[in-house]
Amino acid sequence: MPDARPIGLFDSGVGGLTVLREVLRRLPTESTIYLGDNARAPYGPREDAEVIRYASECLDHLATHDVKAIVVACNTASAVALPELRKRARVPVLGVVRPGATAAALATRSGRVGVIATQATVRSHAYLAAITDEDPSVMVHEHATPELVPLVESGRTSGPDVLAVVRRALLALLPADGRGPVDGDADRLGVDTLLLGCTHYPLLADVISTVVGPAVAVIDSASATASWLAGLLEVHGSGAPEGSVATHLQLTTGDVVAFRRTAAGLFGEELANVQAVALPSLSHARAAVAVATAS
Question: 32 has which bridge partners?
Fold first, then answer.
């Protein structure tokens, strides 16, 4: 039956807002609650156990808001923690790896796909498994690009310095001369499809497209995830009631002003309801620092 409860989404920071943007486009009558764990971003360099603990805290907090489904809008958490999160939750939990992998497998013409992601996501080989599960003939090249997430978290998504960082990050996927591909010459790059295996990376999509050139299709998982979410709600018959007026809340463990600035860049002033939130282990860590400082 129709369900007016909100959809919960979380990410290590602002990157998952790219997924939220696509969810709002695809499902405009659905209410949402987004949680960005900005204080502990990025998740990519962390050990798997730490990622699972932090992701579990995010999921548990969203559950207190009585959400009807949860989207893990973080590739690292999806790659490392999704099975544990599904055991923990009482509502459907959707990750971003499988939708993105399916889109990439369908997009490639040469059967060669590059994946850029965080260290933890690459270490998990989640995209390799998911893409080859969709099409065993596809060759997948996974490449860790940890330097890109801090750019986005700091609000730097364009300009010559950002272009230089992105070019260096993608050097392993470029021809030996480092100049990048030329029009219609995808074979020089080695892949004809590049999957952005981190939800932060779509905010750098224009720069990434400039670096890899027009012969390479740049795919992100946000739109595919929104479509999978729509299908999930349809299967369960749990979409918002007809005529519903959507409400949206954004939560962050970090700087509210900085988060609001990034959200405004994506949504204008449409999403302005940003609030601070403290998660358990983060609160304990801050309390310990306060005690140590006082003593």
Answer: 7, 248
User: Would the pLDDT of 289 be above 90?
Assistant: no
Q: Identify the active-site residue in 19, 27, 62, 74.
A: 74
Mean pLDDT of the chain: 90
- Rounded CA gap, 158 and 219, in Å? 19
Amino acid at 151: L
Residues 96-144 pLDDT 10s: 999 999 999 999 999 999 999 999 999 999 999 999 999 999 999 999 9
Say how far apart CA 154 and CA 164 lie, in whole Å. Answer: 16
Please tell us whether the domain made up of 7-95+223-294 is placed in CATH 3.40.50.1860. Answer: yes
Q: How far apart are CA 295 and CA 278, in angstroms?
A: 23
The burial of 246, by beta-carbon neighbours within 10 Å (0-12 exposed, 13-18 middle, 19 or more buried), is given as middle
Of the candidates 71, 189, 198, 277, the residue annotated as catalytic is 198
On the question of pLDDT at 38 being above 80, the answer is yes
Task: Assess if CATH 3.20.20.70 describes domain 98-220.
Answer: no
State the pLDDT confidence band at 91, using cuts at 50, 70 and 90: very high
Nearest to residue 30, comparing CAs of 238, 272, 290, 253?
238
Kindly list the domain boundaries of the chain, sorted by start residue.
7-95+223-294, 98-220
Instruction: Label residue 178 exposed, middle or buried (CB < 10 Å: 0-12, 13-18, 19+).
Output: exposed
pTM: 0.89
Q: What is the dihedral of CA 172, 173, 176, 177, to 10 degrees?
A: -110
Mark whether 58 is an active-site residue. no
> Could you give the CA distance from residue 175 to residue 143 in angstroms, rounded to a whole number?
15
